[in-house]
């Protein structure tokens, strides 16, 4: 099943890097406000929403001039998010007031990544069929560098050990995080919408050529590949020696992260564009069959499922007690992680492709998936 470039942009937020369901504690260089229980999510109604994470009550919304399929990231008291209006915005977490914006010369549906004092954002379509990745100052939004690649991609960048890893039109790039110069590239047989994870010196990424690849993070040399029955727009999540990833063939896979050998597969009734999140031995993933699933991480046995009224392409975000996800019907909801029982839902004015970011009152942050960012 092939997707057009236009359709790819709609589910880009679902491919947000299988990034972090980890706990990111405050640092001196990255202070986060305390006393706020909030979840931040974008919508096709051109808004970024801040909701009370326990009740779903709206705290504020920030309006852009285009759809917000980009998944927000949180840094130094701001939510940072891209829009199809060709801008990236930094918004105050408490008030929703704009702190800065930067014009990108392309619509953005991939997710920004913050490392140190830099925001990395990009891969989108320019008028001359190229993609760009930008490095911006996180405090001011001033440009530090840009990298231009042929073709269109919607992969979100991952930054580990001074390198930026991001998918391209038919390849994966590794760039110097300070300079933006290319260190290596690895060619695949089709586009890389998946966002890479980096764990223990290995880069994991999916491709629309139906494969998942494991590459040496320093050299780009292939260690192994695992073939599925469909395009892999989902981003890999690595936890406990296993890699979890979804495919257009309607399956969630678990494979050995060292060898690529299949451990188990779990079949849904629709393509799995969502990226899995793993918490306390459970894999959380959504499907185009209108459901979100909780699956045993070791066996692949279903623990529970919960329904929505339309496709779910966003990636779940999981805290100790709740899992959050939105769907094409515009509903964003929270469910109990143990039972799947719905705790609350919030209706936006457009489809939700964005994956959420959660800030707890103790200043811990949660994003979707597990990535080498925290290791």
UniProtKB/TrEMBL annotation:
InterPro entries registered for this protein in UniProt: PQQ_b-propeller_rpt, PQQ_rpt_dom, Quinoprotein_ADH-like_sf, WD40/YVTN_repeat-like_dom_sf
One Pfam family linked to the record: PQQ_2
Domain Pyrrolo-quinoline quinone repeat: residue ranges: 37-146, 232-350
Domain of life: Bacteria
Protein name: Outer membrane protein assembly factor BamB
Organism whose genome encodes this protein: Runella defluvii
Phylogenetic lineage: Bacteria, Pseudomonadati, Bacteroidota, Cytophagia, Cytophagales
């Amino acid at each position: 099943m092939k997707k057009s470039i236009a359709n790819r942009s709609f589910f880009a937020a679902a491919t947000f890097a299988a990034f972090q369901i980890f706990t990111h504690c405050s640092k001196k260089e990255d202070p986060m406000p305390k006393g706020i229980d909030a979840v931040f999510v974008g919508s096709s109604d051109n808004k970024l929403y801040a909701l009370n994470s326990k009740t779903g009550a709206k705290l504020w919304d920030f309006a852009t001039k285009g759809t917000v399929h980009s998944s927000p990231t949180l840094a130094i008291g701001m939510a940072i998010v891209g829009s199809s209006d060709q801008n990236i915005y930094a918004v105050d977490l408490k008030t929703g007031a704009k702190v800065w914006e930067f014009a990108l010369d392309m619509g953005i549906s991939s997710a920004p990544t913050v490392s140190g004092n830099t925001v990395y954002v990009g891969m989108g379509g320019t008028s001359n069929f190229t993609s760009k990745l930008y490095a911006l100052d996180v405090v001011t939004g001033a440009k530090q560098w840009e990298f231009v690649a042929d073709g269109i991609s919607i992969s979100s960048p991952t930054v580990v050990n001074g390198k930026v890893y991001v998918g391209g039109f038919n390849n994966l790039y590794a760039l110097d995080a300070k300079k933006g110069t290319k260190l290596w590239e690895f060619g695949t047989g089709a586009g890389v919408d998946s966002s890479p994870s980096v764990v223990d010196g290995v880069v994991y990424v999916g491709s629309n050529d139906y494969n998942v690849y494991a590459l040496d993070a320093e050299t780009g040399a292939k260690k192994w590949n695992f073939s599925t029955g469909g395009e892999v727009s989902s981003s890999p999540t690595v936890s406990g020696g296993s890699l979890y990833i979804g495919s257009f063939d309607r399956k969630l896979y678990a494979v050995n992260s060292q060898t690529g050998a299949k451990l188990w597969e779990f079949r849904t009734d629709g393509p799995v564009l969502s990226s899995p999140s793993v918490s306390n031995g459970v894999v959380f993933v959504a499907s185009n069959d209108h459901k979100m699933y909780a699956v045993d991480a070791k066996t692949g046995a279903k623990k529970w499922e919960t329904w929505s009224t339309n496709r779910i392409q966003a990636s779940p975000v999981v805290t100790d007690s709740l899992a959050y996800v939105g769907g094409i019907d515009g509903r964003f909801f929270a469910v109990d992680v143990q039972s799947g029982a719905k705790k609350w839902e919030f209706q936006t004015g457009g489809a939700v492709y964005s994956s959420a970011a959660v800030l707890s009152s103790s200043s811990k942050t949660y994003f979707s998936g597990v990535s080498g960012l925290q290791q």
